[in-house]
Design a protein that fits this description.
mainly alpha; 61% helix
């Protein structure tokens, strides 16, 4: 069953004006924690779907900056929250960095979050290992090939090779402390 974007009556939506664009921005911000980049991308998509009523170009940057001034969009807060959530799920600094880059977070704003991820690297790796039953949280006897797969999974999760190796090749029940 396919869905149609608009009713079958042939109705096309009215082009957006400034009030409608502001309304869309606020509705989006009411639903999602987001970044300036993601908000701008959303508004750009809505403009391409519906068109712009004005003669000049739509003031996307002004709307996004106004939302940031009002505190509705805070890239630094978003980066911190997203980084912390990814680390709790067991992802390493590379995955955290990639997620922030994908969300349009500026490198300078992401720097403190990357540092936080580096400092908590072993804890994040252990959280991932616990969730995936790897290394100290794995089975009694694990074949070398399985340990190599666990190591590869740790690398894909964004952990540095030294930490991934330490965790993936640890014996069941081994105590690994961040020291």
């Amino acid at each position: 069953m396919s869905r149609r974007k608009f009713p079958s009556s042939g109705h096309t939506p009215k082009p957006l004006d400034l009030a409608a664009l502001n309304g869309l921005a606020l509705a989006y911000l009411g639903k999602y924690a987001t970044t300036r980049h993601k908000l701008r991308t959303y508004l750009r998509r809505k403009l391409s779907e519906r068109g712009w009523e004005g003669e000049d170009e739509a003031p996307l940057d002004a709307i996004v900056e106004r939302c940031a001034e009002l505190g509705y969009v805070d890239d630094a807060l978003f980066a911190e929250a997203r980084g912390a959530a990814l680390m709790r799920r067991g992802y390493g600094v590379q995955r955290v960095t990639a997620a922030l880059r994908g969300a349009g977070i500026d490198s300078e704003i992401a720097a403190p979050v990357r540092e936080m991820a580096r400092e908590g690297a072993l804890d994040a790796a252990l959280a991932f290992a616990r969730r995936k039953h790897i290394g100290p949280f794995g089975g009694e006897s694990i074949a070398p090939e399985q340990r190599r797969r666990h190591f590869a999974a740790m690398l894909r999760a964004g952990h540095p090779p030294d930490i991934a190796r330490l965790v993936a090749f640890s014996e069941r029940g081994a105590s690994l402390d961040a020291a």
